[in-house]
Amino acid sequence: MQNKNREDIYAGLIVDIVLKKDQRTGKRTRGVVKDVLTKSQNHPRGIKVRLENGQIGRVQEIIKNKDYIG
Predict the structure, then answer these.
(1) I need a labelling partner for 8 at 20 to 30 A (CA). Which of 1, 15, 22, 62 fits?
(2) 1 CB contacts (<8 Å, ≥6 apart)?
(3) Distance between CA 17 and CA 70 in Å, rounded?
(4) Alpha-carbon dihedral sign for residues 49, 13, 28, 5
(5) What is the 3-state secondary structure (H, E, C) of 8-20?
(6) CA atoms of 62 and 11, how far apart (whole Å)
(7) pTM, 2 dp
(8) C-beta atoms surrounding 49 within 10 Å
């Protein structure tokens, strides 16, 4: 459920997202969160984010903080 709550998503996290074009297949794209775009505190399909490479999609899984060593 952590991907559905805005408070769990912040800049710098490494996440897997589903892009709009990949919603049918569920193909995931991995990247680092730049901006959180969802305004509400939670969303049933995942919080919408912009990655550092500019891609926009909904978070499916949080991988780790990019500063995490281990």
Answers:
(1) 22
(2) none
(3) 22
(4) negative
(5) HCCCCEEEEEEEH
(6) 12
(7) 0.87
(8) 26
Among the listed residues 4, 15, 26, 6, the one whose alpha carbon sits nearest the alpha carbon of residue 65: 15
Domain ranges of the chain: 2-65
Residue 40 is given by DSSP the state S
**Residue showing tokens 């680092």:** 32
Token pair, residue 29, equals: 């794209």
Q: What is the DSSP letter of 54?
A: S
Domain 2-65: which CATH number of 3.30.470, 2.30.30, 3.40.30, 1.10.8: 2.30.30
Amino acid letter at 66?
Answer: K
Q: What is the pLDDT of residues 3-46, one digit of tens each?
A: 789 999 999 999 999 999 999 999 999 999 999 999 999 999 99
Cross-strand pairs, 31: 15
